[in-house]
Amino acid sequence: MLPFNLKMSHTSQLFPWLDYKNAPFTKRIKRRHKTFWTSPDAEEFRNTPLQKFGSLANLKQQPNWQRVLSNKANAMHFAAMHGCKTPLIYWRGRNVESINFSALPPQFVIKPTIGHSCNNVFLMDNGYNHMDKKRYTYYELTENMKQIMESNPLNEILIQEFLTSESGEYRIPTDYKVHTFNGEIARIEVIYRTGPGKGTVNVFDTNWEPKENIGKKYVNGDDLAPPKCLPQIINQAKTLSKAYQIYVRIDFYATAKGAVFGEFTPTPGIGIGFTNKADRLFTFYWDEYCEGMI
User: Fold this and answer.
1) Taking residues 175-179, what's their average pLDDT?
2) Paired sense of beta strands 107-112 and 122-125, if any
3) CA-based diameter of the chain, in Å?
4) Which of 2.120.10.30, 3.30.470.20, 1.10.540.10, 3.90.1720.10 is the CATH number of 11-63+168-289?
5) Backbone dihedral region for residue 54 (phi beyond 0: left; psi -120 to 50: alpha; all else: beta)
6) What's a Pfam family in this record (predicted)?
């Protein structure tokens, strides 16, 4: 793939896809978001347990079936069905007052099945939340979860395993965000988080060659070392992407257990926040590998 530090005027004849004016990737993501989530059945469909469809073949007969995988519990089930590692689930449900905290290990993660941008995610370590650097009692955690449920009664709460880093540390995990197009990987965006919405980024291709930043939110970081489980991340991302078919960002964590699946994001930032060059690059991949798909 052509590095984007070359000047457009020197490459347009050899690479005509670089000549896109107002590349439509962002427009396509906005259109997809509207199509996915403004239909009357959208929220109910997203929160339908994957098991109720009986089989993946039955699921894929549904219009825009990928919507159901925006539910994090469904996404993990789908990933596990395709051979990916997922976090252990300690508790799942809506009646948060029934949670027996004394039965949980000292480290655990709380997250809703519907959410984005690390909102309402708690990385608990002996009462300390690594995400916002605050301590919480069980009562305070329960009250927070009750507020989440009040905002969307179809939501569920997941309490899951707190995965350690490859070196065995409990900390905010590094996100390996793989931008995929029907089995092809365009970029791997690595987010080194220090808190919700805070951190640095580096971007790579599948050969771990550094590439230009594709977003406008984070500045570049200093850590250029690949994770030990990079081959797993790449292979699993390709497998899941081929099963998912349309463009999707697939998140992974590099852990002491190897590569662990995080979630699917079919409309990252509703298409907003990408650089112009990233928009052109992703438009090329879409046209090349996802032609005619939503």
Assistant:
1) 97
2) antiparallel
3) 65
4) 3.30.470.20
5) left
6) ATPgrasp_TupA
